[in-house]
Design a protein that fits this description.
single chain, Rossmann fold, 10 helices, 11 strands, methyltransferase activity
Length: 328
């Protein structure tokens, strides 16, 4: 295992308030980094954000991504993984009637396009664009798309593969023109930022008046977080620096100057989080047959969570925020 330096962060860096411990004993879910981490939740009722404590300083955070599961491949399990992938597809196919009947399929489609299916095509910036598949999807629908990402190799691949313009680094350092985009999207991005408020201010600046901001992020008050405690995949320490509930992210978005039009949670895709969280709980390595059983269980949990939101709103796996830049 690799070591990474961390430093205490006893108070909220968004409002300066003290915070109570909400979860401790969190380890790197990929098992590559030494140490344990905790999350605190701000006691200020006007804030309420959760933050990582201790946390790596910016000069050390690259180590967390150098061993990230998306950058490495494990050998020696090809047959098992191939069988699991096939099972995954068959299970999804068999569950399609249920998804169509209860609305999960519609929700998944809505999120596949970051809620933009009903919006007129325009200029779109995806912050934290990763491999660029979402941008390419929107480009095919007539959008003029650009992306930003910290990973220089990722941005180069997006530009080379899809012919999409990309920018390297923090959005606040990209110096993009003011009032130049119709939509800014951040899918599972804001939780990785040291200063999410500064990024939201920059989103407001580069959006045209009336422009739309769409964000998704893990829900710190989700059913999965409560059930799995330190093993919940959503903590993702030490890569996730801030976590939100619907209410806390809505407050932060308004604080940045936006008008929030939708603040909710969703369960589409939650099966993956349930499966990985349960795997994190297991001390022994699972056989591919055990993995198959776990896969079935995780899809059942996703369906249960989806229905549970009727009685317990804002308890889904992820937060969704849609907000507009005011027209002055």
């Amino acid at each position: 295992m690799d070591s990474i330096t961390s430093e205490p962060r006893p108070s909220c860096d968004l409002c300066g308030s003290e915070g109570g411990l909400v979860q401790s004993g969190i380890t790197d879910p990929d098992g590559n980094l030494e140490g344990t981490w905790s999350f605190r939740c701000c006691a200020n009722p006007e804030c309420g954000v959760c933050w990582l404590d201790p946390a790596p300083p910016p000069s050390e955070l690259w180590k967390a991504y150098a061993t990230y599961h998306t950058h490495t491949r494990k050998s020696g399990q090809r047959f098992g993984k191939a069988m699991l992938s096939l099972a995954h597809r068959l299970i999804r196919l068999s569950l399609l009637p249920f998804w169509l009947a209860n609305g999960l399929k519609r929700e998944a489609g809505y999120l596949r396009f970051m809620t933009l299916s009903g919006e007129p095509a325009g200029r779109l910036l995806d912050v934290g664009c990763g491999g660029g598949r979402f941008l390419n999807r929107m480009k095919k629908r007539g959008w003029q798309v650009e992306g930003t990402d910290f990973d220089e190799q990722a941005t180069q691949k997006v530009s080379a593969r899809y012919g999409i313009k990309t920018h390297i680094g923090d959005l606040t350092q990209c110096t993009l023109p003011a009032n130049s985009f119709d939509v800014v999207t951040m899918s599972q991005t804001i939780e990785h930022l040291y200063d999410p408020l500064a990024t939201l201010h920059e989103c407001l600046r580069i959006l045209k008046p009336g422009g739309l901001l769409v964000m998704t992020t893990p829900n710190a008050l989700s059913i999965g977080a409560a059930e799995f405690a330190a093993f919940w995949r959503g903590w993702e320490a030490p890569r996730h620096l801030h976590l939100f509930s619907v209410e806390s992210l809505q407050r932060l978005t308004r604080r940045a100057g936006f008008e929030v039009t939708d603040a909710s949670t969703y369960s589409a895709g939650a099966a993956v989080v349930y499966r990985v969280s349960r795997t994190n709980q297991q001390a022994a390595r699972l056989s591919w047959l055990d993995e198959l059983g776990l896969l079935l269980w995780s899809y059942r949990k996703e369906l249960q969570e989806y229905h549970a939101q009727a009685a317990s709103p804002h308890s889904g796996q992820n937060v969704l925020i849609r907000a507009r830049k005011p027209i002055i």
